[in-house]
Amino acid sequence: MGRDAKLAFQKAAGIFIMYLTYCATDFCKQQRRSTISANDVFEALTELEFDEYIEPLKECLAHFRKSQQGKKEEKKRRDAARDEERRQLNVSMNLANGSAQQEQPAAAAVAAVAAVAAVVQADVSSSSSSSSSSSTSGQ
């Protein structure tokens, strides 16, 4: 495909997107809304007589939303695990600080360092497992 043909196709695609957006915006204005939804775009496609693209686009949208939901759930799990590790670290440090008053201060420092090392190790292993899973899913 020649350079001029690519530029012409890009220009035509941009104009189509603007026109589709304009039609979808009209549907929003009719319903007294200011935000375009996916249904507005589908209605605009119907009005422009591009009905054959609606079902494939709905499937793509459903797949996209499902992948976004999976990412949100994974982030919640990671955050919950990290919060639990921090809570355990605080408990360990509080125990170490309480026993330090009764025992040797060095023992409390060793307990605190061990707790911090456990949290760091867990954080590193969880981030390396999530980065390896994201790198394999991108292939």
Estimate what percentage of residues fall within beta strands: under 5%
Distance between the termini: 28 Å
> How does the overall form come out from the CA principal axes?
elongated
List segments where confidence is low: pLDDT < 50 over at least 5 consecutive residues.
134-139
Total strands: the figure is 0
- Residue share in helix: over 70%
The average pLDDT value, as a whole number, equals: 80
By DSSP (H or I, 4+ residues per run), the number of helices equals 4
Largest sheet: none
Q: Compute the CA-based radius of gyration.
A: 27 Å
Structural class: mainly alpha
Order of helices and strands: HHHH
What order do the helices and strands come in, and which of them pair?
Blueprint: H1 3-30, H2 38-47, H3 54-102, H4 105-137
Q: Can you put this structure into words, describing what you see?
A:
- There is one protein chain.
- The protein is mostly helical.
- Helices cover 86% and strands 0% of the residues.
- Helix 1 crosses helix 2 (38-47) and helix 3 runs antiparallel to helix 4.
- The protein is elongated.
- Mean pLDDT is 80; it is low at 134-139.
Q: In summary, what is this structure?
A:
By secondary structure, this protein is mostly helical.
Keywords:
mainly alpha, 139 residues, 0% strand
